[in-house]
Automatic annotation (TrEMBL):
CDD domains assigned to the protein according to its UniProt record, in alphabetical order: crotonase-like
SUPFAM superfamilies reported for this sequence: ClpP/crotonase
Pfam family, one: ECH_2
Name used for this protein in its record: 3-hydroxyisobutyryl-CoA hydrolase
């Protein structure tokens, strides 16, 4: 399973894509659970991933609805790889060629 974050991913999109084996972020990636900013809890299974983020960063994201860019995603372990947006098609072709 490969999840590619090349833009805004919020709410249920985060919950569905965060469980991929490979999670690729580009410089355009912006993830957030905006429902958390208004006092609701994160849904769609994202709590599992947030609880495993280092240094309390998952708790911070869950309590504030903070928006996470590519650097945050890599630091937190939510993203497993970074690919510049202009090389995304090339990377997708390489992944598709893997048997």
């Amino acid at each position: 399973q490969v999840s590619v974050w090349d833009g805004i991913v919020m709410g249920g999109g985060v919950g569905l894509s965060v469980h991929g084996r490979f999670r690729v972020a580009t410089e355009k990636a912006l993830l957030a659970m905006p429902e958390c900013a208004i006092g609701l809890f994160p849904d769609v299974g994202v709590c599992h991933a947030l609880a495993r983020m280092p240094g309390g960063s998952g708790a911070y994201a869950a309590l504030t609805g903070a928006r996470l860019g590519a650097a945050d995603l890599l630091f937190s372990g939510l993203a497993t790889h970074y690919v510049p947006s202009e090389r995304l098609a090339e990377a997708a072709a390489a992944v598709a060629a893997v048997d």
